């Protein structure tokens, strides 16, 4: 294409960028001719735009990993035409690699390393150089005093790179490869895996093993090596250019020094467990599903993940690309997409993307491929349901949330009868519990009557109660109402009338004081609080908005009536009592009360562990509230921390820059606005207070866990009963969950917990959880 | 001016949500949009005369990123069998909740 003379530099750069980024996308001509054409264009532009071109290629090398071999081929072609430029580019790659590693961008670094290793196949880099690069990575395992996660990462990278360059390296450097494998094997066999139990979706390996990720990839790589590195997933466009690339000169590079580990700054990825739900028997028609230890399984998942990550902000594009996966005719595409997405959705401790992403991508896939996806997704849902008994509790929650939301997008159609067998089980066992929680969540997105009608009659015991208010002081008292009851009903009527007549908060306080005179030694007046709060919530029952404004309007009265810790717990108990059939209302009210500081985080934790809540303790909403409360606390601390850091930075800037130039003159005159010692001190105190509250919250939660679990274990032992009940399983899993989901916060208080709570005299069942976590938290 | 408006939209945490059923409640909308993050405020659109819901609302998040997620992932999905439409809004002001009915 001829260039118009009027094109500005900026326009040319834009054009180059678009040309380079688009290569390999849908096109009317072949990839080979496109690559050849592009190489020619770039060669012509190199004299004037070399820095720009190399910079764009550098970005593509690790930001578009799904097109890795396309770009290595392009670089190979450029290197043939311009050897010097090829050398410069290799140097840029190594500098970038160093940079990415030192700023802990490990995912990008891995893609860059894969790219570098694939350059061996295009004759850009000498095999010896890549061999020594990989060898250096494996030698990280010999370093001492570093976390296992660092060793893991470097070995993982080598394994993840071998599908690209293994064949070439074996051909050229067979002895060195032997050594490399021996070193890796030694490491894989000796490393510790206490995280495995914590991170697996299912507790058992039936029907499919849930392998630790390093073990799994190592097995896959070994198998690939046995198969002489033959796989047919990775595209290798450079093969078409062999005659040209053969003549290229290769670059060597000096030994790469792995950046050192910096405590607290180098944050390596946390380990994973490979999620498996399908095997080849699940897709009897069409192409075979690669086995667990086939490298194809990993390569396909990898490239699907890259595709998802590149298109995560555009669900339609993302779904379309997944369904048009390159080489889709060679694999059971629908099963693999669904396994990959479910694996990410259930990934512990957190999914790569927000849960809502997975919900929306499944909806999109169903819409685009209504003939196939819904059917496979239904089969997967059935399998998940069948395996609920051993499923990790965090994953069960995610399953409930996703499944109910998904159903709400498809008129709640589901073959409920297929799940009817579980109605014979104890309703506290995982399957009936799951259905009950799903129906509860469905109801939140619809309304009671609709949900009651979607399930078959025999499911009725699992249908939640209609979300109605349970007001204690109904107008018509029951036949055996006592005098006291009558008095309370009358009082409640008076309060309601007063509120309706727009009385002020102070007037209400006077009224309440008259109704319930406070004794001198009495601190907390529970009756008074209950009467007021019940009446207020009753009056505001119409909607969330009504209830929020009621709390807002009588904030002062509530603070007055529930000033101490006991009162706060009482507020929560009363709110639960009146809204016991409407968990969603309860959640939003607790949320609002926390924001308005009517209650605090510790009181919420105490309330959730109180005997009043025992009947609901394994219900999902309880844990929604628990995690919401912890998250709020953590956010509060993080916000204050950030303000303190920001303040200190501003103060430092103003201290340092005191040279006698115009700028610092100006700075000096503005320095009155800079934070002074006193401001910083105040902020520090706030941070300390908040951290203190956070610590207190975690200590309360863990202490209560220990109390109820120890109690249960002792009681079971005393009665010679099996301790491993569904309540116990549930509770111990929730304990693990708190550790796992809030691990970065909990980590701060490990030593306190070790000294105060998780002491050696504790029942080993409970102590094990702490010990396992401690080894992960390191 | 147009520039100001664009700036407001770029920094907004508020979404206009349309194409809702008249029977869809605040509770349902709250549940759906909470899936992207904590809500600061939810204002139901009301018929000017009858003061009943009329198919739209404003959802304000605590954080911008939650609103972005809602635009990406909730927009175009269904609630009460209707396809929910979301759009950036410069921020709710009193009075705007009243639709033309």
Describe the structure.
- The complex is a heterodimer of chains A (778) and B (101).
- Chain A is built from 34 helices and no strands.
- Chain A has 778 residues and is mainly α.
- In chain A, helix 20 packs across helix 22.
- The mean pLDDT of chain A is 93.
- Chain B is built from 3 helices and 7 strands; from the N terminus they run H-E-H-E-E-H-E-E-E-E.
- Chain B has a 5-stranded mixed beta sheet.
- Chain B is globular.
- The mean pLDDT of chain B is 92.
Oligomer: heterodimer
Q: How many extended strands of chain A?
A: 0
Shape of chain A: globular
Spatial ordering of strands, largest sheet of chain B: 6-1-3-2-7
What is the CA-atom radius of gyration of chain A, in angstroms? 32 Å
Beta-strand residue fraction of chain A: under 5%
Look at the helices and sheets of chain B and give the structural class.
alpha+beta
Name the biggest interface: A-B, 26 and 22 residues
Indicate the overall shape of chain B.
globular
Main sheet overview of chain B: 5 strands, mixed
């Amino acid at each position: 294409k001829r260039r118009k003379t009027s094109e500005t530099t900026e326009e040319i750069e834009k054009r180059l960028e678009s040309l380079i980024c688009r290569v390999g996308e849908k096109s009317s001509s072949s990839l080979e001719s496109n690559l050849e054409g592009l190489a020619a264009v770039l060669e012509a532009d190199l004299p004037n735009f070399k820095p720009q071109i190399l910079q764009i290629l550098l970005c593509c090398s690790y930001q578009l990993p799904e097109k890795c071999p396309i770009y290595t081929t392009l670089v190979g072609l450029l290197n043939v035409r311009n050897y010097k430029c090829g050398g410069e580019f290799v140097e840029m790659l190594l500098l970038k690699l160093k940079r990415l590693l030192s700023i802990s961008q490990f995912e990008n670094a891995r893609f860059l390393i894969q790219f570098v290793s694939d350059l061996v196949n295009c004759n850009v880099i000498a095999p010896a150089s890549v061999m020594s690069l990989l060898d250096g990575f494996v030698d990280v395992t010999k370093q001492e005093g570093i976390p296992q996660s660092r060793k893991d990462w470097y070995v993982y990278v080598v394994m993840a790179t071998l599908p690209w360059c293994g064949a070439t390296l074996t051909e050229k450097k067979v002895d060195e490869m032997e050594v490399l494998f021996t070193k890796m094997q030694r490491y894989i066999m000796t490393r510790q895996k206490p995280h495995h139990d914590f991170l697996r979706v299912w507790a058992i390996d039936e029907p499919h093993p849930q392998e630790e990720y390093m073990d799994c990839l190592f097995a896959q790589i070994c198998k690939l090596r046995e198969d002489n590195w033959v796989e047919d997933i990775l595209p290798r466009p450079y093969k078409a250019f062999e005659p040209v690339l053969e003549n290229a000169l290769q670059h060597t590079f000096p030994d790469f020094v792995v950046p050192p580990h910096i405590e607290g700054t180098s944050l390596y990825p946390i380990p994973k467990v490979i999620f498996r739900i399908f095997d080849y028997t699940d897709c009897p028609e069409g192409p075979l599903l690669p086995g667990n230890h086939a490298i194809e399984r990993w390569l396909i998942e990898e490239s699907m993940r890259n595709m998802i990550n590149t298109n995560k902000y555009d669900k339609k594009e993302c779904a379309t690309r997944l369904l048009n996966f390159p080489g889709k005719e060679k694999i059971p595409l629908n099963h693999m997409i669904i396994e990959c997405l479910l694996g990410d959705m259930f990934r512990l401790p957190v999914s790569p993307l927000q849960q809502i992403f997975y919900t929306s991508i499944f909806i999109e896939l169903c819409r685009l491929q209504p003939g196939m996806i819904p059917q496979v997704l239904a089969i997967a849902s059935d399998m998940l349901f069948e395996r609920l008994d051993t499923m990790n509790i965090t994953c069960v929650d995610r399953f409930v949330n996703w499944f109910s939301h998904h159903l709400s997008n498809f008129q709640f159609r589901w073959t409920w009868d297929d799940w009817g067998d579980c109605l014979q089980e104890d309703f506290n066992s995982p399957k009936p519990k799951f259905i009950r929680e799903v129906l509860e969540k469905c109801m939140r997105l619809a309304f009671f009557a609709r949900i009651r009608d979607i399930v078959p009659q025999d499911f009725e015991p699992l249908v939640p109660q209609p979300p109605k208010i349970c007001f204690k002081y109904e107008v018509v008292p029951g036949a055996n109402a006592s005098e006291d009851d009558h008095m309370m009903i009358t009082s409640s009527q008076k309060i309601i009338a007063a509120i309706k007549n727009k009385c002020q908060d102070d007037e209400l306080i006077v009224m309440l004081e008259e109704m319930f005179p406070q004794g001198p030694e009495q601190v907390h007046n529970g009756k008074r609080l209950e009467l007021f709060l019940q009446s207020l919530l009753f009056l505001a029952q119409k909607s969330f908005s009504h209830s929020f404004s009621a709390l807002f309007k009588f904030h002062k009265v509530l603070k007055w009536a529930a000033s101490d810790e006991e009162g706060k717990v009482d507020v929560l108990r009363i709110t639960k009592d009146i809204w016991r059939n409407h968990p969603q209302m309860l959640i939003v009210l607790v949320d609002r009360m926390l924001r308005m500081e009517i209650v605090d985080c510790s009181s919420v934790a105490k309330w959730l562990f109180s005997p009043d809540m025992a009947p609901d303790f394994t219900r999902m909403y309880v844990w929604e509230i628990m995690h919401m409360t912890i998250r709020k606390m953590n956010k509060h601390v993080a916000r204050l921390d950030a303000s303190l850091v920001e303040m200190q930075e501003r103060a430092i800037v103003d201290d340092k820059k005191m040279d006698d130039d115009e700028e610092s003159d100006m700075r000096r005159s503005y320095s009155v606005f800079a934070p002074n010692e006193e401001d910083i001190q105040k902020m520090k105190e706030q941070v300390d207070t908040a951290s203190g509250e956070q610590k207190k919250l975690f200590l309360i939660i863990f202490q209560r866990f220990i109390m109820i679990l120890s109690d249960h274990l002792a009681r079971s032992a005393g009665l010679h009963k099996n301790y491993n009940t569904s309540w116990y399983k549930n509770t111990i899993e929730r304990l693990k969950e708190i550790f796992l989901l809030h691990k970065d916060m909990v980590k701060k208080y490990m030593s306190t917990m070790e000294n105060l709570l998780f002491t050696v005299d504790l029942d080993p069942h409970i102590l094990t959880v702490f010990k396992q976590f401690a080894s992960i938290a390191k | 001016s147009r520039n100001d408006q664009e700036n407001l939209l770029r920094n907004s945490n508020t979404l206009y949500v349309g194409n809702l059923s008249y029977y869809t409640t605040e509770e349902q909308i709250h549940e759906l949009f909470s899936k992207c993050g904590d809500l600061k405020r939810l204002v139901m659109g009301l018929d000017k005369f009858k003061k009943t819901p009329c198919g739209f609302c404003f959802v304000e998040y605590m954080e911008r990123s939650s609103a972005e997620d809602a635009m990406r992932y909730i927009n175009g999905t269904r609630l009460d069998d209707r396809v929910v439409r979301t759009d950036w809004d410069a921020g709710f002001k009193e009075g705007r909740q009243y639709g033309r009915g």
